[in-house]
Each structure stands twice: as structure tokens, then as C-alpha cells.
Amino acid sequence: MAAVVGHEDTRTRLLATALRLFTTHGVEGTSLQMIADELGVTKAAVYYHFKTKDEITEAVVEPGLRELEATVEEATRERRPGARIDHLLTGFVDVVVRHRALVALFSSDPGVARALEKHFFHKESAMAGMITILAGPDPDPARLVAAHAALAGIALAGGAPDLAHLDDPTLRDALLDVGRKLLGRPRPRAPRAPAHVR
Amino acid sequence: MAAVVGHEDTRTRLLATALRLFTTHGVEGTSLQMIADELGVTKAAVYYHFKTKDEITEAVVEPGLRELEATVEEATRERRPGARIDHLLTGFVDVVVRHRALVALFSSDPGVARALEKHFFHKESAMAGMITILAGPDPDPARLVAAHAALAGIALAGGAPDLAHLDDPTLRDALLDVGRKLLGRPRPRAPRAPAHVR
DNA sequence: GTCTATAATACGATAGAC
DNA sequence: GTCTATCGTATTATAGAC
User: Fold this and answer.
1) Residue A61's Cα: distance from chain center in Å?
2) How far apart are CA B74 and CA B78, in angstroms?
3) Residue A194 near chain B (CB below 8 Å)
């Protein structure tokens, strides 16, 4: 199973380049010409790998979105509401850390939503599902705002260029802390230290 | 002092329309044709009020950015670090609530940064200044991440369409709560209720 | 202040050579 | 698998009539 390597490689390079350009210029602000130039090929060469620009956008976003949807589905299966939140929170943070800028991209870039709404993927429902789990049924405004802020804060902080120097475990812990503070969840295995803390 | 009213009115309508389109399609995803169509005028009419698209982007963003810069400057003048954080936090939340989608726009849209970096405004330094105040000097990773998450979370939650139905005081309180939780600040005038709360 | 008309350029996308 | 060349359209922006 080691055929078409050259093909896969160029395709992978293309997606990596596209992601980088998308995060700095936005999807709509990135032209196929820019991608081709960065790759050192022509526009027509890009069109060999992908039929349309939307197809590129989908392919860039796909892996992260798939993992996110899987995490939401897993979390939904938890019986206790608190466990649902914890499962979703850790799963979300893991995806953000694994893909860094990607989640920030489709948390805020309208071009991603536009490209995705025409096909199978449903970013909207994944986001709605996460909010429902985090805020619970019939949430008060404070909890609803906290849920939104947690998702946006984790996604954008995780993808922030200023924080790119942090290694994965450090970033992961810090992002988990953000989520736990906003959602009122205890840290695992250290429920609540009484008085000598800080 | 009540001249040129018609002019000001169209200009204001134009900016409001531009902001709305920017938030739903992104700056680069919004064409002057879209703005003109939405206004019921032609592209040339838009060009009467603004010489370039960048000028529109600047004008849309200007009021919010000015208020933000003023808030940062005020906060910097506070002597105690905690007071600096509280001042910046409340000021930032007020700007977000007053302008709702605007702050979310220039927190995440690359088109805004691109349009601004060519002229007087310095979004970058305003953001850096806020992070410095919130995270303090030589911050550990956790505090740095918390500061980033607080700003991004407040901005994007404040501009979220899902939360547009919340009235200003409710949204304001909820966003302040987000910031305080992430930055470890106490709620004013109700330091810590002992046991009967919740 | 808004219009028609148009210029110059960039866009996404296709055809066909190599 | 990548190229040159091109099509049709949309873009920002300008000139000039009304």
C-alpha cells in the first residue's frame, strides 16, 4: 500500500499551504493564485488536485470538523450532565490543540461556513450541539454567554499566533482551565483544596 | 449646526449596512456591489462617500477602536495592577456591548487588520496593550492563555447572533462574569458569599 | 448626490499541449 | 502532473452626465 505517494504529497502540501493562507488572509481573502504562487506552481496545477475552491476549503477543514463531530456525539452519550460537559470540554480542547489554527478558522471565518453549507458538512449543527451540552437545557443568560465565551475563547486562544510557542501539553492544560473556570467544572483528581492554595 | 443632514444620514446608513455585511460575509467577502445593492444605490454612489473600500472598513471600525484605545490608555494610568485589570475589563465589556458585532469583527477578521495596517490605526498595539495589562509582566502560560481567551471570548460571545436577543445590562453582566472568572477577579461590592449561595 | 458607462485588473474555472 | 493560454465574470475604481 505505498503507491501514489507523489500525488498525496503535493495534495498535502497544498492543504497545508491553504490552511496557512486561510488563517492569515481569511478564506475569501485567499485566491487560488496566492496558493499556487506559494506552492511554486500555476493555478491550473492546483485545479488538477481540486475541482473548485470550495473543495479545497472543505478538505482543509474536514479532519478537524470530523473529530469535532465525533467528540460531540461521544459526549452526548454520557449520562450525567457534568460528565457530558467534561467529555466535550476535553475533547474540544484536544482537537483545538491538535489542529491549532484550524478550529479558530472555522469558529470565526464566514467563508468556511459558506463553503460548507452547500455540502454534507454541517458546522452549524455541531456548534449548536456543543452549546446545548455546555449550557444545558433552558439555560439562563449567564450560562449561555459562558458557553459561547468558552468555545470562542478556547478556539481563538488555541490558534493565536502569540501562543504558538507553547508546547501541546502546556496549551492543553491552560485551555482546559479556561473551560473549567467558565463552566464551573472542578479539576479532576484535585476536587477543591481548602485553604492553603494561593 | 444642523447642516448637511442628508449627507450624514446616507453615510451613516452606508456604514451600518457595511458593518452588517462584514459580520456575515467577512470584509473580503463583501463587495461594494453588495453594499450598494443593499442600500438601493449604485456602486458609483458609494464611491461618492468613500474613495476606497479600505476607507469604508476604517470608518466602520473607527468608533469602536477609538473607544478601545481610550480604555486601554485609561486603564494604564491605574496604579494598582488589579485596578488596571478591572478598569480594562469593564471598559472592554462596555465597548463590546455598545457595538456588539463590531469588536468580534476586528477580533477575528483578517480583512480588518489588512485595511488598518496601511493607515494611522494600530489594532495590533491595542490588542498587545490589553494582553499586557490582563496578563501582567512575565506571565506564566496559564495566565497568558487566560488573557487571550478572555478577550476573544468576550468579543465573540458579545457579537454572537445567538445572543443578540439579550438586552444590554444582561449581556454586560454575563460578559463581566466571564472576564472575572478567567482573570481571577472578585465581583465588586459582593466579595464572597459564605455558604448559603446556590 | 446619484446616475450610466467604462476602464483595468483579478477572480474562479476550463481546454488542451506536453 | 504540470504547463500555457484563455474564457467569462466580478472586482475596485474613475469619468462625466444629470
Assistant:
1) 8
2) 7
3) no
For the domain covering B53-183, report its CATH number.
1.10.357
Tens-place pLDDT, residues A39-49: 999 999 999 99
Separation between Cα atoms, residue B8 and residue B14, nearest integer Å: 10
pTM: 0.93
Q: How far is the CA of A59 from the C1' of C10 (A)?
A: 24
Where residue B93 falls among pLDDT bands split at 50, 70, 90?
A: very high
Contact state of A152 with B152 under an 8 Å Cβ cutoff: yes
Fold of the domain spanning A1-51: Arc Repressor Mutant, subunit A (1.10.10)
Distance from the A2 Cα atom to the nearest Cα atom in chain B, whole angstroms:
40
Residue of A nearest to B31 (CA): A28
A152/B153 CB distance under 8 A: yes
Q: Where in chain A is the domain with CATH 1.10.10.60?
A: 1-51
Residue of B nearest to A147 (CA): B157
Q: Which grid cell is A146? A: 459562558
DSSP, residue by residue, B72-140: HHHHHT-SSHHHHHHHHHHHHHHHHHHHTHHHHHHHH-HHHHHHHTTSS--HHHHHHHHHHHHH-SS--
Q: What is the pLDDT of residues A150-160, one digit of tens each?
A: 999 999 999 99
Q: Does the pLDDT of residue A195 top 50, yes or no?
A: yes
